[in-house]
Amino acid sequence: MSASDSVPRVGVWLIGARGSVATTVVAGCAAMTAGLHPPTGLVTETPPFAGSGLPALSALVFGGHDTVDCPLPKRAEALAAGGVLPHGLPAAVSAELTVAEREIRPGGPLPGDTRTEEDLIAAFAADIRSFVRRGRLARAVVVNVASTEPAPTGEALPPSSLYAAAALRAGCPYVNFTPSTGLHHAALARPAETSGLPHAGRDGKTGQTLLRSVLGPMFTQRALTVRAWSGTNLLGGGDGASLADPAAAAAKNAGKERVLADTLAGTPEGEVHIDDVPALGDWKTAWDHIAFDGFLGTRMILQTTWQGCDSALAAPLVLDLARLTARAHERGLSGPLGELGFYFKDPVGPGPSGLGEQYTELLGFARRLRAQPAEGGPGGGRSGTPAHGCGAGEQQ
Ligand SMILES: NC(=O)c1ccc[n+]([C@@H]2O[C@H](COP(=O)([O-])OP(=O)(O)OC[C@H]3O[C@@H](n4cnc5c(N)ncnc54)[C@H](O)[C@@H]3O)[C@@H](O)[C@H]2O)c1
């Protein structure tokens, strides 16, 4: 057995593996592992997580599905040209990008695809299982970072749900980093429950909603009445193009508005808009305009401007989620991981919506993941029911 074989390796199977977020995840993980960049933005690299038994960044192995064929090293070059990745990074980590590129398989449905839902689920599950086998991985986490879909209207499974079903069938934990349906389809409720697998979602909380989950509780705690909360986002890149579809934008905006409904005493007036501005690429500007009443009904306004690089905000969260969910799987937890609400706009389970309380829950989760269960055993907590015998093996 070689030294590298002695450290259990953990797979991260990315749906949308050639997108901006996925490419930044793979390049970023390689850059940190090589010591080229510090782990800025990775919550799991901070002291409270040191004893949680999370897989090391160097133990992560990447693969995934995509429906486009632009190779990962080329995609990384394009992101560097746009200032998303540091200049020179794609060359510095080209070996790791090439290794991941070899593990990317064609996704679906492709234009003109005649395969049935069952054909697609079976094919995706076979790809994931073969990734786990080939890499001799201890387990793999499936993470959806594909383009946002409109909410489905009929009974047919949207692509995100086909992949979620494939993850269950391959015996893998599942994380939905997008607002797409994924495991939230009625047809998948029972298989998800009986799978014995942990899952988390939906839609990474990286910018505007992150700020809302801090400011919403502030207004409530200071007994200030929010009358209207309006937001506008300008965004380019692949995500901007996908969200130019009003149905896809509606799926995204529902999560952004949920945090206000959950943290404020009433539902304020106002909407969120997303405009596709291709010239901005991956750089997003989000404005929030908050009208509120102070003492004696005095009218006041708070305005915020968030200018972020979307993929650089998202990638560390994806790595955190992959590590936490992999460890939850190793510890035998199953079901919705509500304590990961810190990371999501529209979290699974009934947890709090304010960022401070969500962080406290996350720290509790980090303690629960430690090798020696705290008093009361690993079942203490409101989600992630302990399950048995969930290795990387497939579900029946
Ligand atoms: N800050 C953030 O960047 C952020 C935050 C929260 C959520 N998200 C979500 O992450 C997702 C990815 O964002 P991005 O900027 O990387 O977008 P992107 O357009 O760059 O990448 C999406 C990738 O998904 C692929 N894809 C589309 N349909 C597919 C299918 N059926 N099967 C497999 N692959 C498919 C596309 O080919 C593309 O490579 C989006 O849904 C976005 O809303 C991003």
Automatic annotation (TrEMBL):
The organism's place on the tree of life at top rank: Bacteria
Domain Myo-inositol-1-phosphate synthase GAPDH-like stretches: 207-311
Position of the signal peptide: none
Family that this chain belongs to: Belongs to the myo-inositol 1-phosphate synthase family.
Name this polypeptide is given: Inositol-3-phosphate synthase
Pfam family, one: Inos-1-P_synth
Region (Disordered): 371-396
